[in-house]
Each structure stands twice: as C-alpha cells, then as structure tokens.
Amino acid sequence: KRPSSILPAPIWCPTLATLPCLLGRAALTLLPVPSTGDSWGMLACLCTVLWQVPAVPALNRTGDPGPGPSIQKTYDLTRYLEHQLRSLAGTYLNYLGPPFNEPDFNPPRLGVETLPKATVNLEVWRSLNDKLRLTQNYEAYSHLLCYLRGLNRQAATAELRRSLAHFCTSLQGLLGSIAGVMAALGYPLPQPLPGTEPTWAPGPAHSDFLQKMDDFWLLKELQTWLWRSAKDFNRLKKKMQPPATAVTLHLEARGF
Amino acid sequence: MALRLVLVFAVSLWVGCSLCREREGACCVPSTGWQQASSQPRVWCQASRYPVAIDCSWTLPPTPPNSTRPTSFIATYRLGVAAHGESWPCLQSTPEATSCIIPDIQMFSMVPYVLNITAVQPDGVSSSFLPFVPEHIIKPDPPEGVRLSPLPGQQLWVQWEPPQTWPFPEIFSLKYRIRYKRHGAARFRQVVPIEATSFTLKAVRPQAKYCIQVAAQDLTDYGEWSAWSLPAAASMTLGE
C-alpha cells in the first residue's frame, strides 16, 4: 500500500529536458508536468530538486562525501524504475493486445531507428569515460521521456494514462538524479544541436499495427536502457569508492 | 510492402515456434528440400561467462541400433528472427562437436539471438532454432574456495571467491546468498544476498558442526542464481 501524500498537491516539477519532440507532424515542446498526487512520483520529483541544490553546510559533516551517495541514489532509482516498468509494460502490452502481450513475440526491430539504442559491445562499453557514460544515459532518457509523454497523450484509458504519468514522473526524477551526478563531477549537461531533436514521425501511411509495434519497441528500449544504466551506475560507484575502505553493501531481497 | 512481408514472416515464425522456450528448445523447422532426418537436436545455451561469451550445447535423441548417426553439425546464429540479415558461425572445435561458443555478445538488447543447429546425417538433415536474450540466460558457475574460520565469541567467518569463469567480477558484480545448517538440524537457514565475499555467522553453537554453501547471481538480477557451491564444513570446538 503506498504511503499517503505528504505534500499539498499539485506541485510543478522543474523542466530538465527542453527538447522539442516531434510526433506526427505537430511539434510538442516539453512542459513542466504537474504531479498528479502520486506520493512516489512526488518523492522522485523532490529528488530532482534536491540533487540540483548545491551541498548545504548543515549536511556537510566530517568531509565531502563526494558524488558517491548521489551515484548510489541514481543506481537505486534505476532499479526502482525497472520494477515499475514491469508493471507498466504488462498493463500497456495487454492494452495493445495479441500478439504484443505474448511472451514469445519477437518482431523485427524496424521503423524505430530514432529510438536511442542501449545495445553495445563489451569493449566499447568498458572504454567509455565517465562523462560520455553519463551523457549517453542523460540523452537517452531525455529522448525516451519525450516519446513516453507522446504515448501518454494518446493513451485510451484513464488507467493507462495514470500508469504512464506515474512512470514519466519517476523517469524525470531519474533524469534529475543523473543531472545531479554530472553536476557533482563537473560535467555540463548536453545541449541539443539545432535540428537534432528527437523525431518520431510515423508518417501518413502508418497503420494501427505498425503504431503498436513502435509502442512495443519503445517499452523494450526503456527496459534495455534501465538494464544498462544499472550496470553504468554500478561501475561509476565502484570507481568512486575509496580504495582503502572495505565496503560491504547489503542488498535485501526485494521480491522484484 | 517489404516491411509487411518481413512482419508476416516474423509472426509466422513466432506462431510456428510457440513451443520454444529460451535457453532450451527444439523448434521444428522442416529441412530445405532434403529428406528430414529422424531426429532433431535438443539445444540449450547459458551465459556463465557474461558478457564474454555464450556457451551452447546440444544432444540428439537416441536412435535405433540400425540407423545411421549424424556425422556433423552446422552451428550458426543471427540477431533477430527476420529472414534477412547476416548469420555468423557459432564456434565449434570440430564439425562433430556437440557444443559451440558465441563470442562478442551485444549487451543490453531485446533483439534475440537465434541459434540454428543443423544435424547433417547421411539420410538427411534436421534443424533446431533457439531464440534467447543473453541477459535472460545468465547463470554464473558456483562460487569457489568456500572456507570457514572460527572466530572468538562463537562466530564463524565464511569466505569465498567468485567463480573463475566469471570474467569481470569487478565491473559485472555478483551478489551472494549463503545457506547453512548445523549438523542434525532439519533445514538450512539462509542469509539475505550480500555483495561482499565474506560473511560472519554469529551465535554459533559450541561443539556443533556446520555445513555452509554459497550461491551467486548477477548483482542486477539478470538471469538466475548459480547452483550451490560445494559444501564447506567446520566444527566449533569449545573455547573458540
């Protein structure tokens, strides 16, 4: 059972990604998304604000903890989002209907080339420097959030819109968390070049089936990015750990 | 139009292979113009060395005594289920080998690998297809070197190493769970997963004998848990 709301609603989340998103032929500029009263969403939104704030002296006790805690929080957020996505994907794929909700359905990945791909081979992934690793994550989730909001605008049922809105808010929290890590490490946030904004224009001949295929692959790509981000932030966490300290992390079985 | 044909093929292949499961399968695909041989390979794959390689093996059902046995296998794989696209060899030591290796895994992709094992026999050929996503078939080998050391205050210090076959434990971290049983107890007790490679068992009984095993899984829950390690045993003597 989710905890009751602890804040007066609604509150406005800061806009972190201001990329215009072209869907169909209409240009939609990302606007601040109001929280819908969902407590976990509000907490994720608060995270985006808090991690943007410079270190407060009262919190700086016996030395600068460095970016480690915010990397850990980002890692935890990716795991939370992975859990949340499983629930959302189940609901959405059932809405799309068969064959999209069949576990063995493996369509070709066609027509969604503008979706950011998480896939990478070991040598390339291992050789990414911290700035590039973080930048790729930030850019990917900026694009994916843009497309997800387009999905939300077209969702046919109130339950779907609620699930998508909740996930979008959490994803925005993840973006804020990544931005906080980049700021802590002194890296600038990527700015889109003119003309390179994410575009996902299905075209006038896009059938209902192919539109559903696009939605299917959006959810799959979200999952693979969350897989990758967990590995990315675990790697960053290891790099930031002080070498002389024996760190033991206890993970509780979360039943995900 | 070409896109529609590809999609129709993909859906047809999905329908035809709906009995296939990841890691282990024997999808039925008729041979191309040759007489279908009497047996089809049963194939399974596992990523115990993620992300360096995927190891696949297969067997053929037992054949009647007077029938001919397969002389060689052709093992290839492709990315995705579409008919077009490049296929690569799954590396075998010899054509008669019943195992192969897929190197250089593409991580973080939902486009499945599709392994094709074709058994070439004198009386015909038979093929099996196995689709899988590498992250779904991760299963590390059991942890190694489990050893126990009594500590003062009725404690037992358990240490182990990650499996040698896991190529990068420092960047693809594992987590571990421990189960232990006092000699004579009915059931094992289990410790919640931890990332460290040691653990202190507290409040152990003096004069008791303990048996302890450790299992490993990818830290981010890819795939499944390894089998339990070989058991390590220790006796708590009085005063330790």
The share of residues in extended strands of chain A comes to under 5%
Rg of chain A is 19 Å
Tally of alpha and pi helices of chain B? 1
Spans of chain A of at least 5 consecutive residues whose pLDDT stays below 50 are 1-38, 53-61, 245-256
Multimerization state: heterodimer
Task: Give a short account of the largest sheet of chain B.
Answer: 4 strands, antiparallel
Which structural class do you get from the secondary structure elements of chain B?
Answer: mainly beta
CATH structural fold name of the domain at 67-240 in chain A:
Growth Hormone, Chain: A
Query: What letter string, H or E per element, gives the SSE order of chain B?
Result: HEEEEEEEEEEEEEEEE
Low-confidence stretches of chain B: 12-21, 25-36
Q: Biggest interface and which pair forms it?
A: A-B, 41 and 39 residues
Overall geometry of chain B? elongated
What is the CATH level 1 assignment of the domain at 67-240 in chain A? Mainly Alpha
- Percent range for helical residues of chain B? under 10%
If strands are numbered along the chain, what order do they take across the biggest sheet of chain B? 1-2-3-6
Distance between the termini of chain B: 78 Å
